[in-house]
TrEMBL record:
It comes from Herbidospora galbida. Keywords: Amino-acid transport, ATP-binding, Cell membrane, Membrane, Nucleotide-binding, Transport. Gene3D superfamilies: P-loop containing nucleotide triphosphate hydrolases. One of its GO terms (molecular function) is ATP hydrolysis activity. It is found in: Cell membrane. Coiled coil: none annotated. This is Amino acid ABC transporter ATP-binding protein. It is a peripheral membrane protein. Residues 4-238 form the ABC transporter domain. One of its GO terms (cellular component) is plasma membrane. Belongs to the ABC transporter superfamily. Its main location: membrane.
């Protein structure tokens, strides 16, 4: 069942075209990895899906509803889509528990006790149960990013977007975060990841998409993209990674 449809999406900043007619479908429980050089449009595409950027042409449909229609309620859309950035974006003045429970309580109307119980279950699930009362600056980078992912899934989103979530981490901490994402895949979470971790993309993705200069040049199974890429620019990119 198709969950997300990206139909001919264009995004411009002045005269600069960042996305040029991107088409992509994502099925329920599918994991899609976006690969490509910096500036290829991966992050902008994720921001358009979460309505953090407006599209200049084309449409994005979530559950067959056009969320880019001017009449769409952006806040209602974002209730159903979680997003995690490379810079964590945790609220520094709030504890881990309060960071995680903020959206369930304030946006979804979940009671404090229920929200905290659910948050503690998620923290335990990902090995952070002892960090509930800590503040972000008391955590390692890997722990902060794991908390950011937990915060994003605490609202039980239909779709999770992950934007280069390991790029700001020390290499020794990367596996902490990749382990969380791998567990989410096993649980059936639908995800779109922009990543520079080619080995991880090959391991976790159901579909890999190569973007270059705002164009989705190639899409396929990881074995095909990494083992026998068809487009010369895909081959060139992978030869340099």
């Amino acid at each position: 069942m198709t969950l997300l449809t990206i139909d001919g999406v264009w995004k411009r900043y002045g005269d600069h075209e960042v996305l040029k007619g991107v088409d992509l479908t994502v099925d329920t429980h599918e994991v899609v990895c976006l690969i490509g050089a910096s500036g290829s449009g991966k992050s902008t595409l994720l921001r358009c899906v979460n309505l953090l950027e407006t599209v200049d042409d084309g449409a994005i449909l979530l559950d067959d509803v056009d969320i880019t229609d001017v009449r769409a309620d952006a806040d209602d859309v974002r209730k159903r889509i979680g997003i995690v950035f490379q810079a964590y974006n945790l609220f520094p003045h709030m504890t881990v528990l309060d960071n995680i429970t903020l959206a369930p309580r304030k946006v979804h109307g979940v009671g404090r006790v229920q929200a905290e119980d659910q948050a503690r279950e998620l923290l335990a699930r990902f090995g952070l149960e002892s960090k509930a009362r800590d503040y972000p600056d008391q955590l390692s980078g890997g722990q902060q990013q794991r908390v950011a992912i937990i915060r994003a899934i605490a609202t039980q989103p239909r779709l999770l977007l992950l934007d280069e979530v390991t790029s700001a981490l020390d290499p020794t901490l990367v596996n902490e975060v990749l382990g969380v994402i791998r567990e989410l895949k096993q649980s059936g979470m639908t995800m779109i990841l922009a990543t520079h971790e080619m080995g991880f993309a090959r391991d976790i993705a159901d579909t890999v998409c190569f973007l270059a200069d705002g164009v989705l040049l190639e899409r396929g199974h990881p074995d095909q993209i990494f083992g026998a890429p068809k487009h010369p620019r895909t081959r060139e990119f992978l030869s340099r990674t």
